[in-house]
Structure formats: C-alpha cells, structure tokens
Write a structure and sequence with these properties.
A two-stranded parallel ribbon has the order 1-2. It folds into 2 domains: about 40 residues, no CATH class; about 100 residues, no CATH class. About 70% of the residues lie in helices and about 5% in strands. It is built from 8 helices and 2 strands; from the N terminus they run αααααβααβα. α5 packs across α8. The chain is mostly helical and about 160 residues long.
Length: about 160
Amino acid sequence: MKKIKKSEYTLWEKVCIFLWYRPKSAIQNFFFDLKNRSQRFVRGYADLDYWGGIDCWFSTIGAKLFRELSENTVGYPPGLTLKKWKTILNEIAEGLDIAHNVIENDAIFDTDLEKMDEEAKTNYLDPKSKTKIVPRKKYDKAMKLFVKYYFNFWN
C-alpha cells in the first residue's frame, strides 16, 4: 500500500476542498458537463466538440474508431483482403494520431521543419525538446486512404 505524504491529499479531500472553496464553479461545471453529455446523447456531438475545434475532436475520436473497426471488422471492400483492409484502417488511425499530435503541439511535420530558419530548428532538434518530428508523407497517405475508402467504413 502506498503511503500518502503529508503534502498530498486524498481524492475525497481534494473534492471537499474544491467544493468548499469553489462551490459556484463546481455547480456550473456540473451543469455544463450534464448539458454536454445530454447533447452527445441526443445529437451525437456536443457544442463543446466544435468549440475546441472539430479537427482536434475528430483526430482523437477517429483514431479510436478506426482502431476498433480494424479489430472487429468482418467485411471489407471489393478487391481487398481482410488483412489488407485491417492494415489500411490502422494506417488511417496512425495518420489521425499524427494529426492529433500536431494539433496539440506535441509534434511537428518534417516538411515544416525544413522550412524553418536555423534558430527555430535548433529549438525542435534540441534533445530536451519533447516535440516529436513526424513524417508528413505518412499523414498524407493516411488522409488519401481516408478519402479513397470513405464509403467503405462499415462493419
């Protein structure tokens, strides 16, 4: 069993502190959350999903959807094998992961890095930098596959 340091609080203590010092925001957040959940239940999406950017929302949700479709698919488009179809679905999911990392500023495309001046490049190439350099070609290929097989995403 992990010992709790004196400076750390348990989850229950954090909740109590939050409710004690910020009851108004806790109530507002509860109703905001409730509104978004009910919108997702009724419409399939919430206002919050497009306020933050549809690109970010779709790259997060889409990658999960394509991975799950790849694992559970039983059908595939004409002219393909099941193995090839699963590979295509996984490539699309990887492309959406790359997109999400670029949107969240956790990654930069290699082609964008080439266009930068030397000072900016050194910031990204610094070993201490947490920003990954990702291949633009892999992303482009995934998006082309997404467009090509758009009407074939069924199970």
